[in-house]
Amino acid sequence: MIPLIVSLAFILAQRIAELVIARRHEIALKKLGAIEIDRTGYRLIVVMHAAFFISIVAEYIIFRRSVSGYWQVLVAVFLAAQGLRYWAISSLGVYWNTKILIAPGQPIVRHGPYRFIKHPNYLAVVTEIAVVPLAFSCYYTASLFTIMNAAVLWRRIRRETQSLRGSNS
Q1: Helix count (H) and strand count (E) of the chain?
Q2: Count of the separate structural domains present in the chain
Q3: What pLDDT, in 10s, does the model give residues 116-165?
Q4: What share of the chain is helix, strand, coil (3-state, %, to 5)?
Q5: Quick check: pTM over 0.70?
Q6: CATH number, domain containing residue 93
Q7: Residue 106: predicted pLDDT
Q8: DSSP state of 96
Q9: Are 2 and 124 in contact (CB under 8 A)?
Q10: Cα-flanking dihedrals φ and ψ of residue 78, to 5°?
Q11: What is the pLDDT of residue 17?
Q12: What pLDDT, in 10s, does the model give residues 96-130?
């Protein structure tokens, strides 16, 4: 249980730090006239992520899960996803946020990982949603939340793409 607690504490600390950064960026973007798009979708993502952590712990305890025999590989994949996540965040600078905030007339970022893939941060999140529960043999959580995450990201990417096209016309 200790590896699970330490791992989830680490991830939660990351998320809290990211929320602090996102809030700073939100303030800066709103000074540029940014508006928030799809608040309902954002709330769905927040609820899903909270339920994700609860589900891992519940499955681990209820089904007496243990650390996977492949944990080293899964940790390596997780760390690679973290590298991609922070490369994406760094490349977006003030434009990175946990919310969809569109500032009219601002450029679309096309450097860093965005040269190679449209949504590198989302790829990192998809990877995490799969590998974190798998590292603790939480197969139900990995399956259920991979599907749920696909649904919320599908919605978010559609709305984000549409909004970015409209703001840079």
Answers
A1: 5, 2
A2: 1
A3: 999 999 999 999 999 999 999 999 999 999 999 999 999 999 999 998 88
A4: 75, 5, 20
A5: yes
A6: 1.20.120.1630
A7: 84
A8: -
A9: no
A10: -60, -45
A11: 97
A12: 999 999 998 888 899 999 999 999 999 999 999 99
- Amino acid in position 89: I
CA 4 from chain center: how many Å?
19
Pairing outcome for strands 100-102 and 35-37: antiparallel
**End-to-end CA separation in angstroms for the chain:** 52
* pLDDT at 167 (0 to 100): 66
For 37-92, give the DSSP string: E-HHHHHHHHHHHHHHHHHHHHHHHHTT----TTHHHHHHHHHHHHHHHHHHHHHH
Q: How far is residue 134 from each of residues 12, 45, 55, 59, 138, measured CA to CA in Å?
A: 17, 21, 12, 11, 5
Distances from the Cα of 26 to the Cαs of 32, 93, 96, 97, 130, in angstroms? 10, 12, 9, 7, 29
Q: Where in the sequence is the domain holding 78, given as residue range(s)?
A: 2-167
Structure tokens at 100: 């969809």
pLDDT higher than threshold 80 for residue 166? no
What SS3 state is found at 100? strand
* Nearest of 2, 9, 24 to residue 98 by alpha carbon: 24
Number of neighbours of residue 24 by Cβ within 10 angstroms = 12
